[in-house]
Amino acid sequence: IVKLAHESDGIVVSNDTYRDLQNERPEWKKFIEERLLMYSFVNDKFMPPDDPLGRHGPSLDNFLRKKPVRAPGPAYGDSGPWAGSEQFAEERANVHVKLCGIFHPHLVDAVMSRFPRLLDPQRLAAEILTYKAQNPGI
């Protein structure tokens, strides 16, 4: 499935994180991190997430496009508060995908929303473990 999706520039719709295949080929690892669409069923309805790569990632519509539609960047020489935010959002989405390969996405979302500027996966993982210990019913 991963090989076919990679070769055809498609996506993988699965709840399997394919951890075993991520170690086989570096290009598959990157592909799985960026093109895996996990889903759930609610009342027998297929429910993909509105934000498949996390809160700061692309919308579902943008994720499903061959070439994402990007918002125009800041004007040349602009150094406003949004300068560099696209790169930050991309890095944040990559960290989110990596953490979802280890922890349940709900835990990752909860902790990443509490620390919106934190990009360090090790610190976020530690915060997730702390959060999980403090909220054992989750």
TrEMBL record:
GO terms for cellular component: cytoplasmic ribonucleoprotein granule; nucleus. It holds the Pfam family Regnase_1_C. One of its GO terms (biological process) is 3'-UTR-mediated mRNA destabilization. InterPro entries: Regnase_1/ZC3H12_C, RNase_Zc3h12_NYN, ZC3H12/N4BP1_RNase_Reg. It comes from the Eukaryota. Gene3D superfamilies: 3.40.50.11980. Residues 1-62 form the RNase NYN domain. Residues 87-132 form the Endoribonuclease Regnase 1/ZC3H12 C-terminal domain. One of its GO terms (molecular function) is RNA endonuclease activity. This is Zinc finger CCCH-type containing 12A. It comes from Zosterops lateralis melanops. The lineage of its organism: Eukaryota, Metazoa, Chordata, Craniata, Vertebrata.
